[in-house]
Design a protein that fits this description.
eight-stranded parallel β-barrel; single chain; alpha/beta; TIM Barrel; 250 residues
């Protein structure tokens, strides 16, 4: 049985961690380095650090935030937000990222995924997909959910794999921050189309939701609100998952 990963997410802007609901109603929840240290100590398998205003603000990811978070970690760090070029990716990797995540830039220039994969290796490249349900389909949104990318999310996930992505970070905008559980239908549709790991994001409430996401094909589950608000800890969650038969890292 494959070991499943638990990944706290830090959405940042101007050096602070924010959390919203369906990508809106953002509230300040703390310092990224302090939260990263807390989650590392609690047993997180990785951290995802996303600058949620870098793209809309037409600026690169704040490298000083990456360095501050990296100093607190003994686990892998994925960094996204404002990655538009090889230089942007290289700067983040030099600042301490183990992987870089692309979203909007990949939609505009899909070849950038291939370029980065060839330069740094597929294991370093994550394509983040923010999906919104429209009727019976899920459509991709770009620029922090503010723009319709006119792409089907399942098709785009398969294309991203072919382009060289080593992992998919799949976020349901409909479920983001709601604690209504993951969009399992979306997750199942994507995991059925790709062979690379998929990180499920959006809607985590408790251990049962994580179990369901893993059952739907997720290789890892990302969460924010439940950790930021201290509804549970990574350690407590892992103990619950282990009791449910999910193989997790200590």
């Amino acid at each position: 049985m494959l070991t499943r990963r638990i990944i706290p997410c830090l959405d940042t802007s101007d050096g602070r961690v924010l959390k919203g609901r369906r990508f809106r109603e953002m509230r300040d929840v703390g310092d990224p380095a302090e939260l990263a240290a807390r989650y590392d100590g609690a047993g997180a398998d990785e951290i995802v650090l996303l600058d949620v205003t870098a793209t809309t603000g037409e600026r690169p990811h704040a490298a000083d935030t990456v360095r501050a978070v990296r100093r607190e970690l003994s686990i892998p760090l994925t960094v996204g937000g404002g990655v538009r070029s090889v230089g942007d990716a290289e700067r983040l990797l030099d600042s301490g990222a183990d992987k870089v995540a692309l979203n909007s830039a990949a939609l505009v220039r899909p070849g950038l995924v291939t370029t980065l994969a060839e330069r740094f290796g597929t294991q370093c490249i994550v394509v983040a997909i923010d999906a919104l349900r429209v009727g019976e389909e899920w459509m991709v949104r770009g620029r922090a959910g503010s723009e319709d990318a006119a792409r089907d999310a399942i098709t785009w996930a398969a294309e991203a794999e072919q382009l060289g992505a080593g992992e998919i970070l799949l976020t349901s905008i409909d479920r983001d921050g709601t604690r209504d559980g993951f969009d399992l239908a979306l997750l199942q549709a994507v995991t059925a189309r790709v062979s690379i790991p998929v990180i499920a994001s959006g809607g985590a409430r408790g251990a049962d939701d994580f179990v369901a996401a893993f059952g739907a094909g997720a290789d890892a589950v990302l969460a924010a609100s439940i950790f930021h608000d201290q509804d549970t800890t990574v350690g407590d969650l892992k103990r619950s998952l282990a009791a449910s038969g999910v193989e997790v890292r200590p």
